[in-house]
Amino acid sequence: MKNKFLAGIVTTVMVLTLTACGGSKSAFKDGEYKSTTKGHNGDLTVTVQVTDGKIKDIQVGDHKETDGIFDGVKDNLIPEIIKKQSTEGIDTITGATVSSKAVLTAVNDALSQAK
């Protein structure tokens, strides 16, 4: 009798947990979202591609950032955002702090359009 009661409680808790977490609900609406913000040397445009409710790609379009310095942002920061599916907790790239913050700001703005 105790085992059935305990199994019932465990099942109820699991169902409530999945429901509270949203189950398989997508985080973002599918589409392509653009945002432009101020970088270190001028405006910087980011395009975020959302597919199946997830960030699939982030492209930096027009920008005036220094290429060698900005490479760290493109090669490290952007893949980390895609991996985490968020900008939360992502550190800026040393030596490219302003550019990193600009990309994070633009991505956040684009994702706000996708909610």
Automatic annotation (TrEMBL):
Keywords: Signal. Residues 1-22 form the signal peptide. The keyword Signal applies. PROSITE patterns: PROKAR_LIPOPROTEIN. Residues 39-114 form the FMN-binding domain. The keyword tRNA processing does not apply. It comes from the Bacteria. This is FMN-binding domain-containing protein.
